[in-house]
Each structure stands twice: as C-alpha cells, then as structure tokens.
Structure of Aminopyrimidine aminohydrolase:
Amino acid sequence: MFTDRLFEKTSTIWEKYLEHPFVKEIGKGSLDLDKFQFFMEQDYLYLIDYCKVFALGSAKASRLEVMTIFSDLLHSTLNEEMELHRQYAEKLGMTRTQLENSTPSSTLSAYTSYMLQKSYQGSEADVAASVLACTWSYNFIGLNLAQTEGATEHPFYGDWINMYASDEFSQLASQMKQLMNELAEEKPEREKAELEAIFVHCSKLEYLFWDMAYDKQMWPQEISS
Ligand SMILES: Cc1ncc(CO)c(N)n1
C-alpha cells in the first residue's frame, strides 16, 4: 500500500519524534510548563490553517465521500482538538483572544505556508498528502506515549496524550491513510513521487515543530520587534 511506502521512507524521521526531548518529557510528565504553553499557542495557530487545508480538500473533492472525510476532519479539529487547546489555555490563565492572537513563529509560518500552498495549487490527493503526516504522526506519538507507565493518568499532560491516543483520533488517522491509499492508487509513478515528496517534507516540518517548541524559538531577537 502507498502509505506503507510513505512510512518506510520516513521511518528514520518518525523514530526521531519519539526520541525528541519535548515528546519524551510529555510522556514522563516533566516538561516545563512554559515550553508546553509556547507549543500550544503555536499549535492553535497551526490548527487554524490546518482547518483551512481541510476546507480546501472539501472544495477540491471529486466525490461526496471524499468531501465528507475532509469536512469531518475539519469539524473535529475545530470542535474537539482545538477544544483541548482552549481548555489548556484556561488552565494556563490565557484567554481565547490571547490564544488566537499569538505571534506566528518562523517554523509555524514555514509549515502552514507549505501545506496551504500545496493545497491551493494541487488536487485532492495533494491536500491528503499535506495533512497525512500531521494526523498520522500525532496518533503515532499519542499511542506510543500511552504505553508509558502512568503517562495517561498524569494530572496535566494526561489529557494531551489521551486526545491523540483516543479511538476517535485513531479513527481519523486511519480514515486519512485509507483516503491517501485510494487517491494514490490510480496515479502514475511520477505523481506518486510528488505525493511522497510532500509527505516527506511535512514529516521534516513536524520534527522542526518539536524543536521549535522545546527551544521556544521565535524570530531572531534583533529583528523580532
Ligand atoms: C504541528 C501539528 N501537527 C499535527 C497535529 C495533529 O493535528 C497538530 N496538532 N500539530
């Protein structure tokens, strides 16, 4: 299957997610709150653009079935995944307005600009390739962290792990994989290679996003005003 090929191609990068200190410290429950807060602020902005990408998928869908998958993902991201961020923001003493108006980091811009550009320009298959690494890798990480002793019961980070390891989120990830397989099946090798390149690029950007969060990377000090 096409997604097996994608997984093989990115397995080294994906293994590195699990070794990343940000991910490991969420699992241990020891991650500094300020790093997590920075991550959630950037991730909320990320999810706003991610929703737009799903909307583009719906607009470009050739069949109602595909339109439904993209719109279901849009709906659950807006109402379930982003609700997790709103709840964490409340615990961290942030208002919704603050959450929506954070300054986008350079890594965030690089990531969402890339997904949006591929999705505006390309077909429904390009949209699927642009979002697949996101949905799938968070489920991969969530399921992995859920195996760590006590991680899902952690009073602060447990909710985050439970969201991405949940049956509902696993269902969304497998729907996306299935859709990618269906859409790639009929494509010539040249187009498959293009879809693979999008997936690899997004997988690398996912790694950069963990790095950005752990180091709370914004713009260089001298140009950040
Ligand atoms: C950066 C990033 N990738 C993927 C997901 C999963 O939806 C997320 N919340 N944030």
